Amino acid sequence: MIDISLERVKQLRDMTGAGMMDCKKALEDAQGDLDRAVVILRERGIAKAAKRADRVTSNGVVEAYLHRTSEDYPPQIGALIELNCESDFVAKGTDFRTLARELAMHVAAAAPRWVSRDEVPSELVEQERTLYQLRAEQDGKPAQAIPKIVAGQLEAFYKDSCLLDQPYMRDPATPVRELVASAVAKLQENITVRRFQRFSIKEG
């Protein structure tokens, strides 16, 4: 087994926020490769989040964010988000509050329409699917390729419109869903985005 230094473990912990033992195990499994260890922790975080998904989340916070284009100009974009967890202990913690703040900022910046793809009305999904298929046919795409093209365009629609599918504003390689999953793994509780609302003066 490869010898993993304490400094290496601390470096991974600082990068991911995961526990020391989780970081050490990930580095061992990655043969000391830091980037691979980050991927392993991310995958394990998603798995842990899935195991906790059925737990009741009856605590949490409502976080607000107001965006100013300059210090001397009043806010013109704002966001409210309700983030739920299992216990008031976690709800009061810095990590959870920071996550809520980050998500509120993301909503203000990225303007999602729904929390997850499950909330998208089925009739709208069918409208989008039909539109993508017609476009592909009009563009002369091969018939056998059209289903794959339509599926890809639907995925792009979800990534643009659904908060959990959107690329995280600070790290576009990470979906918001994985950001939440990482917090679940770190805090050892189920965490859910209940709802959000975005406000914009220019958009009425």
Q: Could you characterize what this model shows?
A:
This protein has 3 domains: 6-51, Helicase, Ruva Protein, domain 3 (Orthogonal Bundle), CATH 1.10.8.10; 59-116 and 162-200, Elongation factor Ts, dimerisation domain (Tetrahydropterin Synthase, Chain A), CATH 3.30.479; 121-159, GTP Cyclohydrolase I, Chain A, domain 1 (Orthogonal Bundle). It is built from 8 helices and 5 strands. The mean pLDDT is 87. It is of the alpha+beta class. The strands form 2 sheets. A 3-stranded antiparallel beta sheet has the order 1-2-5. A two-stranded antiparallel sheet has the order 3-4. α2 (20-29) packs across α3 (34-51), α3 (34-51) crosses α8 and α6 (122-138) crosses α7. Helices cover 51% and strands 17% of the residues. The longest helix is centred in the N-terminal third of the chain and has 18 residues, at 34-51.
